[in-house]
Write a structure and sequence with these properties.
Length: 454
């Protein structure tokens, strides 16, 4: 076996990584390079001859650095993006080093067991049924695809149709009921699955974007056939929670499957003071959440859970003569997600949970909510939502989009823009484990200063 020089390039990568991470408190948060500058620095023809591996890593880091958004920074408040805790990042480095194909138990036994263990810990933290199956996917998008594929299988099976064998042509039409303020990944999942967005039945929501049970009852009353209800825990703009327990009661009485989009809001279940927001979540049929948001593990790391493991496996599982399939208590991950060959994402999730423990996870969630509330107080009079979680919507009138751009360009913090009830708004999300009170105050001071034109 050849003996490559691992020490040189890995040492360079370590030095570049630690320089970046330790410099985050002082670093400008946004990208500092234009598209043309990045193309000039990173582009050009493929060289005929190879280069020294350490030199390649060093040049890559130098060329890419101006185009790196400091999303792991404690002052990155755009979208809902966490950082990476030291344990999770280190485990992710080992994941790349071990380079396990985590589709089959036979190709990565430790990877399979770690996913099984971490999945059990997460079921416990979220208060989900002990028998629920778990899959580790890229993010909420593929988690929705996986869960809704299981839902599609089950509601059509109950109607006497085998969708995996016979496809959708000629199948009973599935109605998908979701709040008018649902996340766009629900629509996209329906496109991927062949159900189509025409199957969507928008359900009335209140002023915070919460699905109303009266609206759900009315929507279900007009349907006759297979149905899936998509509830939301954590509106992407306001952070609001659908009344999940009531939704489960209404939907199940009509024979519908309930899927929960809890991309970040499901983490409220880990907090004693926030758990009331998800009362009844254990009665749903499938759940989506992300680890690369509030758990602060590196991208990409999504999670899917299903209360009906047989439906989950029927939708995702595959058999082939050349594969070494698991037997007994062994677990093949490809039976629970849409990938075949796949990265062993469970190691980083396992390390994050092990390092934090139950109380550490709870503290992480509570702290993010406290900091969001602190920011809302600084924005007094301009807050557009009830701050129930880690999301704050702020309005500065028609000037809001320009203000968002100026805040991003200034570099102290990074926020994103959105539309809320037809008006522009600034969206402020707190989900990084390193964010502290000083970060919130610096961000608030910057935003108010730029809004005042000073």
């Amino acid at each position: 076996m050849d003996r490559p020089d691992w020490h040189g390039p890995l040492t360079e990568a370590y030095e570049q990584a630690t320089r970046f991470l330790t410099g985050l408190p002082e670093r400008e948060v946004g990208s500092r390079a234009t598209l043309e500058e990045l193309r000039a620095a990173l582009g050009g023809p493929l060289p005929d001859a190879g280069s020294d591996a350490r030199e390649v890593v060093a040049r890559l880091a130098e060329a890419a650095d101006p185009g790196i958004v400091a999303s792991p920074s404690g002052r990155f408040f755009g979208f809902v993006i966490g950082g990476a805790t030291p344990a999770a990042l280190a485990a992710d480095w080992l994941t790349a080093t071990w380079d396990q194909n985590a589709g089959l138990y036979a190709a990565g036994p430790a990877a399979a067991v770690v996913e099984d263990v971490a999945g059990g810990w997460l079921r416990d933290l979220f208060g989900l049924p002990a028998q629920a199956s778990a899959g580790f996917v890229t993010g909420a998008q593929m988690s929705h695809v996986t869960a809704l594929a299981a839902a599609r299988h089950e509601v059509l099976r109950r109607a006497g149709w085998d969708v995996e064998t016979d496809g959708l042509h000629g199948a009973p039409r599935i109605a998908v009921l979701a709040g008018a303020d649902r996340h766009s990944t629900i629509d996209r999942a329906l496109r991927f699955l062949g159900i189509g967005t025409a199957a969507l039945v928008p359900v009335d929501v209140d002023d915070q974007g919460r699905m109303t049970t009266a609206g759900l009852r009315a929507a279900l009353a007009g349907l006759d056939g297979p149905a899936i209800v998509c509830a939301q825990l954590g509106n992407v703009n306001t952070g609001a929670f659908d009344p999940i327990g009531e939704i489960c009661d209404v939907a199940h009485a009509a024979g519908a499957w309930v899927h929960v989009d809890g991309a970040f809001g499901l983490w409220a279940a880990t907090s004693a003071r926030l758990r009331h927001l998800v009362t009844g979540v254990d009665r749903a049929d499938s759940w989506t959440t992300d680890a690369h948001k509030w758990l602060n593990v590196p991208y990409d790391s999504g999670l899917v859970f299903c209360a009906h493991p047989a439906a989950h496996r029927a939708a995702m599982g595959v058999r082939a003569a050349y594969l070494v399939h698991a037997g007994g208590d062994e677990r093949d991950a490809l039976d629970y997600n849409p990938e075949f060959s796949r990265r062993a994402r469970g190691f980083a999730v396992y390390a994050a949970l092990r390092a934090l423990g139950r109380t550490g996870v709870e503290s992480l969630i509570d702290r993010g909510c406290d900091l969001a509330a602190r920011f809302a107080r600084r924005m007094s009079g301009r807050v557009l939502n009830d701050v129930v979680l880690n999301q704050v919507l702020v309005g500065f009138g028609p000037a809001t989009p320009d203000l968002v751009r100026r805040v991003q360009a200034e570099g102290t913090c990074w926020v994103s823009g959105t539309l809320w009830r037809g008006a522009p708004a600034m969206r402020f999300s707190v989900s990084n484990f390193t964010t502290d009170e000083a970060d919130i105050d610096r961000a608030a001071d910057t935003i108010l200063r730029l809004a005042a034109g000073t």
